[in-house]
Structure formats: structure tokens, C-alpha cells
Amino acid sequence: MAAGFKTVEPLEYYRRFLKENCRPDGRELGEFRTTTVNIGSISTADGSALVKLGNTTVICGVKAEFAAPPTDAPDKGYVVPNVDLPPLCSSKFRSGPPGEEAQVASQFIADVIENSQIIQKEDLCISPGKLAWVLYCDLICLDYDGNILDACTFALLAALKNVQLPEVTINEETALAEVNLKKKNYLNIRTHPVATSFAVFDDTLLIVDPTGEEEHLATGTLTIVMDEEGKLCCLHKPGGSGLTGAKLQDCMSRAVTRHKEVKKLMDEVIKSMKPK
Amino acid sequence: MEVGMHTDSKSRAETGAESGPRGPGCSLRHFACEQNLLSRPDGSASFMQGDTSVLVGVYGPAEVKVSKEIFNKATLEVILRPKIGLPGVAEKSREQLIRNTCEAVVLGALHPRTSITVVLQVISDAGSLLACCLNAACMALVDAGVPMRALFCGVTCALDADGTLVLDPTAKQEKEARAVLTFALDSVERKLLMSTTKGLYSDAELQQCLAAAQTASQHVFRFYRESLQRRYSKS
């Protein structure tokens, strides 16, 4: 009977739960789903991470290649993110060129990398004006159950922490690059941006970490990306119901707690990995 | 008769108060708005903030493709064309922001199974482009007669290296700023409809920018009201 009610009136069904301050999957309004992370699973990539946020699964692979640095910034490398939402992850995506949601997610990740200065692009330069590293970060969603932005940001951060770049020297005589695969260094990750997403219901209630169904019923979404000093890298609110300053303040405090949880989880995983 | 009135009702409205050099602090650039300047779209508007200019055309409510129709409300589509080059991923991201902002205020339930298309063309970009796009879109939706529950406006704030707030920054100020925040606010309760930010800033600075944007939005809404009054008082 509950299943029938859910099909016919999904919003009413949902409101019944919200009145009791909980959600159909048993979570509180401010509770995240179980987060698991697996670092270094792809051996052919220079760095990789798999993040599961409940059912939402995103895998990030980072490949490093050589490129000529941009002419207007000869001492900088490139970080090129790309988010792919294949038809595999959800029935709402079709195969073909990236849809709007994938493009928006790619732009969001590019903005987070740019704003938070997670990697100093100067660190990626090998020889100014001639050679620099370009890091291609490919994020692929394997299972879409809402809150894709949080999962992508976490996967990207974990994968970048896992990247090891070989040492490169430029041979003076031949002017060719010599790669020493035996000597590898980790990237210098300067900040740890963590995203926290909220969904707005009926213009008033804010819930954390929406699932796919909740996102569909929500009247608005909000994503806050914070780094460890409490500085905001991104406040992404693409339309939807209006929010007052006070409600934003509540979201900030939740984002701060989430940052601590995620940082702790990631540090544990990295510590537990055996050195290659 | 009807056609004559249609072509004559092009109206220009300009702010007198906000012209002149800006002081360091909270003042907006010179605004100008022109409505009903295109003949084919149901509504059109051109909005200028300083040297930034955006032209918008609105078609709707019109027929919608069966694959895109929503059974109980109107389907809103936004197309943003940059001044040069082909639209890319950044334009798609801005289209989503503008579309979701419009969806929050447009009463789509009054026109189910129809489509409302908003087409924006960037004429010139001299800073605060997204805010100008939002303002132009709002004016064009009003010109088209699309029912809305509130008006909305866009305001951009820039924070420079020592934390000073500049509203409605020029392109140069945006480039040199530490953080640039763009907000869309609604006219009824000045609530935050949309926000997108660039750069690093603290929580306190965010609240400060939001408060400044809410005060600035009053000027914008007053400008909307004056320009509409001027337009309808002529005919």
C-alpha cells in the first residue's frame, strides 16, 4: 500500500517522512550516506580513486602527459577535468555527446580546481616555455543516485593525492626529455576542498546529501565547497527556491563538519595503503 | 492600429542617478534598458550595465516537442550565445543557472505542455556579464507577458586582495579581484535565488556581500519599476 501511495503521490509520501524529521531510507535530515573510498585501484592510471556515497559511485582516473605550456603562462601546466555521465549509470542519460548535466558538472569541477588552488600549476612545469605536465582527470559515474557533485569532488581529491609523477630531466645535448620511471614523486596538494550538497524542499526545509529521488522532488539545490581553513571555494546554487542568509549560515556549519569527516576518512585510507 | 502601437512602443529608460564616476564602495554603474525592440520574439529586451550589454528574446508559451514536454508545467529553455566563438561548456553552465533562476519565478503551472524559450546574445562584455544576462532575461520575460510570481535581478560583487567590496565590477576589477560572487535575488523578499562564485573567500565575507547585494537589488528593482512605468504611461 505504501508503494502504491509512493507512485501516485511521491511528494506527499515524502512529506510524511519529513514531518517526522527523517527520510524514507532512515536517515536524519542532516545525515550523509555511508561514504567509502578506494584509492589506487586502476593500475594503468597515474592516480585513481573510487568513491561510493551510498549508491552513487564515481571513479576518477588521472593520466599525466607532456604538453607545451600556454604561451601566456609559460611556467604553468594544465589540469583538465572531464565528468562523464554514461547511459550505464542512469536511464535518464542517452549515449552521444555529453548532456547538460555532464557539462555543468565538468565546469563545476574545473571551477573547484581553479578556485581552491588545489595544485599550484607552476608545480606542473618541467621546463618553462618548453615542457609541462598536463593532468587529464576523467571522472566517470558508474551509478547515479543523486549528489553527483560531492562524489566527484571527493574522487578528484583522492585521485590527485594518489598521483605519482616520474622525475623528468631535459638532456642538454639532445634537448629531449628523459623520464626516470624509477623515481616518482607525489603531487603537492595544497588544500583539500570538500563539497557538501543540500536539497531545498517546499521552499523551507534543507536536507543534506539528496538521493536521486529526493533531487527530483526538490525545489532547489545548493552545493558548498569548503577547504580546511573554513574558506569557501564555491557556493553553487543554480536557481530554485529562495534562501535567506540565516539558512545559508546553517548550511555553512554543516559543511564544516562534513569537511572534518571526509578529511579523516581520506587520511585513514591513505595511511592504510601499502607503499608501491 | 495594433501594428502601429507595437512598433512605437519601443521604450528606452535610463537611470539618471547612477551616472558619473564610481566611488570605492557600493554603487552600481549606469543602467539602460530597452524593451520590445525585436519584432519576431514575443518579448525582447536589451540591458546595459556600463559597457556590458546583453540582448534577449523570449518566445512563449509556444508549442513544445513531445520528448521535452512536462505534463503539468511549461518547459523553460535557455540559449546563451557568446559574443565570439561557438558556445562551449561554460555557456552551458551559465544557461543552467539562468534557466533554474527563471523556473523558480515563472508560473509554469499556468501553461502546461508548452515551451518558453529565452535566447540571450552577448553584445559586449565589460564585467558583471552574468548579472546583466539575468536582468535582461527578467525584462524580456516581463515584455513577453509571461506570468511570474516575482521579478529577479542579478548583482555581482568583487572582493579585492584587502577585502574591499566592489559592486558591479568592470572587467579589469574582476580580473584583479580575489573573489567574484554573482547573486540572483527575488523582488518579493530579497531571498537568494541563485549564486555562483569564483575564488576563495570566508563565510563572513559571503554574508557581507549578500547584504550589499540585497541593498543594491533595491536600486535595480526601482529601475525596473520606473522603466515599466515610463513605457506604459506613454501609451
Description:
Chain A: InterPro entries: ExoRNase_PH_dom1, ExoRNase_PH_dom2, ExoRNase_PH_dom2_sf, Exosome_comp_Rrp42_subfam, PNPase/RNase_PH_dom_sf, Ribosomal_Su5_D2-typ_SF, Rrp43. Chain A: Pfam families: RNase_PH, RNase_PH_C. The complex is a heterodimer of chains A (276) and B (235). With 276 residues, chain A is of the alpha+beta class. Chain A is 30% helix and 32% strand. In chain A, the strands form 3 sheets. In chain A, strands 1, 2, 3, 4, 5 and 6 form a 6-stranded mixed β-sheet that branches. A 4-stranded antiparallel β-sheet of chain A has the order 10-9-11-12. In chain A, strands 7-8 form a two-stranded antiparallel ribbon. Chain A starts with a helix and ends with a helix. In chain A, 43% of the residues are buried. The mean pLDDT of chain A is 91. Chain B is α+β, with helices and mostly antiparallel strands and 235 residues long. Chain B is 33% helix and 30% strand. Chain B is built from 5 helices and 10 strands. The N terminus of chain B is likely disordered. At the A-B interface, helix 3, strand 12 and helix 6 of A face helix 2, strand 9, strand 10 and helix 5 of B.
What are the main properties of this structure?
heterodimer, A: 276 residues, alpha+beta, four-stranded antiparallel sheet, 30% helix, B: 235 residues, 5 helices, 10 strands, globular, disordered N terminus, cytoplasm (chain A), Ribosomal_Su5_D2-typ_SF (chain A), nucleus (chain A), exosome (chain A)
